[in-house]
Design brief:
This protein is α/β, with parallel strands linked by helices and about 350 residues long. It has two domains: about 230 residues, Spore Coat Polysaccharide Biosynthesis Protein SpsA, Chain A (Alpha-Beta Complex), CATH 3.90.550; about 90 residues, 3 Solenoid (UDP N-Acetylglucosamine Acyltransferase, domain 1), CATH 2.160.10.10. About 20% of the residues lie in helices and about 30% in strands.
């Protein structure tokens, strides 16, 4: 049986203060944790057994997902008391000698990828490791892949400087790994896929291949990327589950919502229990989390409001993430607000 491991212990420092109380994979996308969307997507391929590696604020993940039975899956947790790195954490979560293929998925990655094609590609090439890869304009924030014509990885540079950016193909954070490669990872100490295992595998002549993702791919490592993931999901460009009922073209509304005289412009998502004041205009691109409160004469577009967020009357919210209360009578442009307790 294939071992499926989701790395879900990331702290998400560049997303602070949003990740002050939750790990990065728990940030909401259309009012559900990103990690929940990933699990449902993988379950759609028939996977029912999941291992989650945790470190930063693990209780928030365990409380939410429990054993996974309410989602029709089974979830086991591997909690790192001290950081073991990406590869070290995966090794600790698995039997000392795994007897089958290992799929690793980064818990901060959204991708519309054909997993069956990825597995076929891995098998056809007799690969030791196959990493999903994405094309980007700037490879410097990522692990840069230097491929041969047949997509065998002949070079790999983690976060290259601009002078070394010779390829725009980057590590997408999704791996298919043969069991014997897991045995190469030293146990009980920090060890990283990108900085340690992959360069070693290339140096020793291992068969590492890159499979290019043809659909959407993004990690949520920054506020800008996180906002983009939400807007793409709302627009239907990423296959995610949307709760609520569709009341108009591209307009989704949860239960117990009070809209009154507000105007909704699709695409827009309104979570359950939201209250919207009179004469407000939501959309296009408004994503309002459950139990949020929106005052009168508010305009919101291309923005994400977290569950319980509050927007004062006469505010305008554009291109923003609102994790708490906005300043009164504010105009918000590509700014992050978060309400301190």
């Amino acid at each position: 049986m294939v071992n499926l491991v989701i790395m879900a212990g990331g702290e998400g420092r560049r997303l602070r203060p949003l990740t002050r109380d939750i790990p990065k994979p728990m940030v909401p996308v259309l009012d559900k944790p990103l990690l929940e969307h990933i699990i449902f997507m993988l379950a759609g391929y028939g996977f029912r057994e999941f291992i989650l590696t945790l470190h930063y604020r693990p209780d928030s993940v365990i409380r939410y997902f429990r054993d996974g039975s309410h989602m029709g899956v089974r979830i086991r947790y591997s909690v790192e008391r001290r950081p073991l790195g990406t590869a070290g954490g995966v090794k600790a979560a698995l039997p000392s000698k795994p007897d089958d293929l290992v799929i690793v998925w980064s818990g901060d990655v959204v991708a519309s990828i054909d997993l069956e094609e990825l597995l076929d590609f891995h098998e056809e090439n007799g690969a030791d490791v196959t990493m999903a890869a994405a094309r980007v304009e700037d490879p410097t924030p990522y692990g840069m892949i230097i491929p041969s014509d047949d997509m065998r990885v002949k070079g790999y540079v983690e976060k290259p400087g601009p002078e070394n950016a010779v390829s725009n193909l980057v590590n997408a954070g999704i791996y298919v790994i043969e069991p014997h490669v897991i045995e190469m990872i030293p146990g009980g100490r920090p060890y990283d896929f990108s900085r340690d295992l992959f360069p070693r595998l290339i140096e020793e002549g291992g068969r590492m291949y890159a499979y290019e993702v043809e659909g959407y791919w993004m990690d949520v490592g920054s506020p800008e990327r996180y906002l983009d993931v939400n807007l793409k999901a709302l627009a239907g460009e990423i296959p995610v589950r949307v709760d609520g009922r569709q009341v108009g073209r591209g307009i989704w509304v949860g239960g117990d919502v009070e809209i009154g005289s507000a105007t909704l412009i699709g695409p827009t998502y309104i979570g359950r229990g939201v209250e919207v004041g009179e004469n407000s205009v939501l959309g296009p691109g408004a994503i309002v989390g459950r139990e949020a409160r929106i005052g009168r004469s508010v305009k919101i577009r291309e923005s994400v409001l977290w569950p319980g967020a509050m927007v004062e009357e006469n505010s305008e919210v554009m291109g923003s993430i609102v994790g708490g209360r906005t300043p009164k009578h504010s105009r918000v442009f590509k700014t992050l607000f978060f309400q301190e307790p």
